[in-house]
Amino acid sequence: MRPRHIALAATIALLGAQAFAQTPPANNSMSGARPGHVPGVGASEPSSSRASNITPRDTKSSIAPTLPAPDLGMDASATEYVRAARASLMAGKTGQAQQALEMAETRLLDRVVPPGGMTAPVDSPMVSQIREARRALADGNSPAAMTLIDRALAG
């Protein structure tokens, strides 16, 4: 009878170990990524359709949500992204407007810089207006953001 109890205990222990092995791990504490997600690949959580995490006042989490991207290709110009931001804001899609403004600003900040010139900031009216439009979104002031976007487009 004793060998049966030992075999039963071993089977229970093995099944318990398998169940424990299938428990998903907690979020990666270094990247905040959910289990099984490779950062930068595929859809990422959390996601949101509302503008957020622009300034400390509108930041509710240390992990910024993924925002919907505008319907433009990767080769779109800064001006095309600003136009997309305007259209998104007109449709009440503040998250998509924020994403388009961030992409426009990135396009404007991408540049070839001579060695030693990397610390010189880009100082253009369009960059300033995009930055201010994002701040207006952070304050929940869509009309001010629209005015700044129109100024950026007027050049």
- Shape annotation: elongated
> What order do the SSEs take from the amino end to the carboxyl end, as H and E?
HHHHH
- What's the rounded overall pLDDT mean? 76
Provide the CATH topology of the domain at 73-111 and 122-154.
Four Helix Bundle (Hemerythrin (Met), subunit A)
Largest sheet: none
* Estimated radius of gyration: 24 Å
Proportion of residues in extended strands: under 5%
Percent in helix? 40-55%
User: Tally the helices: what do you get?
Assistant: 5
Broad CATH class of the domain at 73-111 and 122-154:
Mainly Alpha
Number of strands: 0
Q: Could you describe the 3D structure shown?
A:
This protein is mainly alpha-helical. The chain has a domain of 72 residues: Up-down Bundle (Four Helix Bundle (Hemerythrin (Met), subunit A)). It is 49% helix and 0% strand. The chain has 5 helices and no strands. It is elongated. It starts with a helix and ends with a helix.
Short description:
With 155 residues, this protein is mostly helical.
Helices and strands in order, then pairings?
Layout: H1 2-21, H2 78-90, H3 94-109, H4 125-138, H5 142-154
Helix pairs in contact: 2-3, 2-5, 3-4, 4-5
From the structure above, extract its key features.
155 residues; mainly alpha; Four Helix Bundle (Hemerythrin (Met), subunit A); elongated
